[in-house]
Amino acid sequence: MRDRYLTFIRGMSVNWWSKIGVIVTTSSFFTFIILELFRLAGVLTNAYVGLITYLSLPVLFILGLLLIPFGWFRYTRSSDISFSQLLKIRFDTDDLREHETGSHLVQTIALLTLINIVFLGVLSTQMLHFMDEAHFCGTACHSVMNPEWTTYQQSPHSRVKCVECHVGEGVDALIDSKLNGMWQMISVTFDLYECPIPTPVRNLRPARETCEKCHWPEKFHGNRIVEKVNYKFDKENSPQYTTLVMKIGSGGEGFVAGSHWHVSNKNRIKYTSVDDEREEIIWVEVLQSDSSFKKYYNKKLSLSNDEKSDEIRVLDCVDCHNRATHIYQDPEQAIDEIIQRGLIDRSLPYIKQRTLGALLNNYPDLDTGLKEIDNYIWNYYNKEFPNLISEKGDEITNAVEEVKTIYSRNIHHRMNITWNSYPSHLGHKDNRGCFRCHNSNLRDDEDNSISMDCTLCHSFLALDEDRAFKYLDNVSDNTTGDMIHKYFKDEFGKVKDF
């Protein structure tokens, strides 16, 4: 059997074209087998090895197969002989002699064809599986995707595969995604991409097909208590507490409306924005109870702006939760969070002031930034609190490392990503988010604006107070109302109407 296949390979290698084809096909086949065994054993996990295994080797394998008949074609043309004559020249009479199951040559070709089909089928399956893994998406194009990979791993959706949101369902979506992937590879190869990558992502699947597989409007009801803590810039880094009753209802039957009223199935909101960036709204159209629509125009903009947008969107989850996964932090909120979690010792004098100052300085690259953050914080304490070094040296070191982690996670010089390159529209900081629509500039034909009443979505129980709201412990949804009433009765002698 072995001699038969060696004879077949020698017979097929009629010139340099077919010899190269045989070498390329055979070597790519065995290289794949070896690399796949190493990957299954966990020895090789690098995404670039995966690219070689599942993209480069299949291409080489198919190219080698094509070169073999091409070599035969070139040989017959140059020698002016037929394929049948070439077969008799390259193979023995016994190889060509017909038996009950065909000639040895036919048997060998049939078996190798079957092996090729199985091999290419396994390759295709493994390639699709490999390319669906988040590790591939985040690390294969490291220089470009590293910011998204870094933030993805820290996100609430870090166990959700990238393809769940970025690739649709069905064959058409699969083909589109692979064609788009090919263009991305070309863009990376020839440096055709923008830095930072522009948002919003135009080809992102609709939220109805992604977000609402786990979060659906019918379940958006009730109220939630949210407590936010921020720290002052004083020596004691004094905490300030803001406690909110968040109204998250979708306004379903028997439930109060809140923030998710915007995506309720019975409501429909359409809008368009300047340059399709979804930052400055041109007009908003809201479905009314009588099935008519009410339209609010931005009086601050001329009607000609309507021509600048080629996208009319139906508002969905990602219009507010635009950073649901790839979350870039606000620097002050990041510092407040790690102080609250106890990752930075709040007893260090002016620690919030110094750590935030270290983050907000301009650094030319990552290595310089990490070095200067270290110097900025240590120099301050060496100068202002030298006696503290021996007592709290470990705590200062820990604070420095936490700040470096924040900086490394959010700032990416290679992609021109700095603070607020990708702002969140959740909330209403810096007049973004809610205030894109809820402002006095958007008005209907009767000159009425969209409501800016804060209590549409939340009520304050405490605002920048020096102590936490004392009825937060052991509170369930069913007792929220009673708890609020008790609080104001105890504090003010009466119940405050929200």
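Next protein, fold it too.
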Amino acid sequence: MLRPRIFVSGATALLLTWASLAFSCAALAQTGPGGGHTGGGVATGGGLSGGGVGGASGGIDAKDDLKNFHTLLAVQATTPQIAQYSLMLKSEEAARAEVRTFLNELTQQNDHAQFVVRGAEVGQAIERARGDAQKYLDSFSEPQKSGLRELSKRLLKDDSDLAQQTRMLTVQIKDSKASPQTLEATTKSLDLALTNLRNREAELGDEMSISVADHPNSRYDLAPVSNSIHFADQLVAMVTEVEISRGTAESGKSAFTFELNEDLSDLQQNITEVLRSQLDKSERCGEQVEIQDAALTPLVPASLIALQLHYERWTCLGRDNVNEMVEGNGSIEVKLTPVVGKGGELQFKAEISRIEAPGLLGELLRSGPLGDTLRDKAAEVVEAVAQRGSDLQAVLPSAARGHATLARAQFHGTGMGRLTMVMTGDIDVAGDDAKSLAGELERKSSSAAVQQAVSR
């Protein structure tokens, strides 16, 4: 049987109407003209006689409907519970922010003493989140405890998993021999445990008619978006993770923000071949450039492109007289920093940070067009991949397109040296556009959660 949805806002009138219809149906089903019992059903026209099981025509039992109605009514959140629900979500979001900040720090440094301090702060934030979740459960009335028993058990199970992951991280941090990679893996498991707890809280809110879509401090993790780009015969893939959050509305507009995390590891693995396709040249009377090796590494908030090359320059004097003018091996490093323009467009600042090359080749790299060409071409490759994977029109939900503005971008790295690019910005929507976006986010985040569960 389909269950009617009941929302806190305007619930009283809706419930009374629903109850009135239920009682009317019960009266029609059980009472004939003049108040006599019909034995089930009301005869009309040619006449449908009773005879249904238990005296109910069509097998519909009004008592069951009323029982479901009373159950739904009993689990509805009170005003103080809605406030506690809001506090619970805020503390969970704060804990998630601490975990993600700590995860980023693990990939950028190897200061164990600092890890101990930050780990304690992460633990405290998680304990606050767990405490607020327990207070929310403690606020349930006896009918709510009965009607929400199974969901409450699942939330307690998720809370237990979160506590276990927190204890594991605490033990590992105290061990001075624990590597950043080990801490990173545990912290990622902790982040997943927080996500599971958050999803369970959303289910409880839904059952108690607290609309998460309209609630401040909601976060939506969407399915990753895959894309690709060709460089000659080399295909480079990129995957962008999308997270959208909703904050407190101001001036009639909802404060939606987005965070994109673009995985550039495929470009890293294929950077030598990609740059060869763009930079190698072999002119009989002119330059010959051969990229011998290349690397793309994090240099937060920038990235570093390192090239090793062999260079020759030939000149032709007459038809068959070819002379070599310059020949040598060298290396050049290019620092690439993402910048967001005034209009919200993603740009990149490329600068040569280091050159090692002998004689005339060194001069060509430092002050001639050769260095500028290598810098610009190498930067264009990374720019093209980063911009393709962060195209707001392609990666954001349709209801956000045309309303999103990029605010900040920077490269990140992981403990294994994998390069990612993180971009954040705002989605400026109001009224029906905000409702459409919230609804689309609910659908997409739910679908993504199902896909993730199936893939495990």
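About the second fold: DSSP finds 13 helices and ten strands in the chain.
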